[in-house]
Amino acid sequence: MNYQLILEEIEKEIQPFLNEGKLANYIPALASVDDKKFAMSIHLFDGTSYHIGDSSLKFSIQSISKVFTFTLALNYYGKDLYKRVGHEPSGDPFNSLIQLEYENGIPRNPFINAGAIVTADSLVSIYKKNTFDTILDFIKKTSNDETIKHDKEIFKSELANGFKNFALINMIKSYNNIYNDIDDVIKTYFKQCSIMMDTSQLAKSMLFLANHGINPLTNEQIITESKAKRINSLMLTCGHYDASGDFAYKVGLPGKSGVGGGIVAVVPKKMAICVYSPKLNLQGNSLVGTIALELFTTKTGLSIF
Ligand code: GLU
User: Which end of the chain is more exposed for a tag (fewer CB within 10 A), N or C?
Assistant: First the structure.
């Protein structure tokens, strides 16, 4: 298949949609990015890769970081993690408080904010003051890239404005499902969200999920086959908040979005993909990114269905 040609076609076809959607301005530092940017990268198991647009432009990975933290926590705790965070779609917005109260502080899944905050807490219990460095080192390992870092301005901007997330963590703490100091946990969460990567690095970092938990480029086992299956399932059912069903319907791949404008997607046994376009749809997922991935699976027939 001529992937480069397919990417070029996609780039042409998404042009009319680049004016639609809105930047995530509830984190002020995210509102200053160039809103017309588009990039897409594919990494295959044999080390070949294909790119379109500015695939070396770094952007804030935001909720895509939840895939890495969930992987680390699942690796350590196994099934016990599900006593504190579930694995069902929420059907609610990414930062919703409502369900948490009904469900006694147990978030529905690790990919909504509440679930990612509990996951971050579970990592702070293990790695203490080194938690963020452990997360960053893990991302460097899965993407085989030592240069990755976080953006201090975006971190500070979210720390100063992330009122909903403060509300979530306090609510969860009131149900005794946060074990560590709120400040340490929320800072870890905001820092992981402010990690900067480009589409090429992100696609590469997800290859282990396309290959039963083994990084096909290094042959390193990152996680067991069974756990890789669970992570992919959750990406399919919960990776796009209350638009997860819509994403599965249109794209048909496990994926995870972030309000920075990135979406990663996994084609089992073949490749990992990342697309970037910062303007979001109403559910907080990249509007053009979702369209580009839908075009990709339509043109290639590479959906899992
Ligand atoms: N840092 C963002 C927040 O907590 C992550 C949300 C997202 O990327 O979807 O609001």
Answer: C
pTM of the model: 0.98
Q: Please calculate the CA angle 73-175-256 and round it to the nearest 5 degrees.
A: 40
CB contact set of 152 (below 8 Å; sequence gap of 6+): 194
How many Å separate Cα 174 from the centre of its chain? 27
Measured distance between the N- and C-terminal CA atoms of the chain, rounded to whole angstroms: 19
Ligand 1 atom nearest 165 alpha carbon:
4
Question: What is the Å distance from ligand 1's center to 6 Cα?
Answer: 31
Per-residue pLDDT tens digits for 237-293: 999 999 999 999 999 999 999 999 999 999 999 999 999 999 999 999 999 999 999
Evaluate: CB of 65 within 6 angstroms of ligand 1. Answer: no
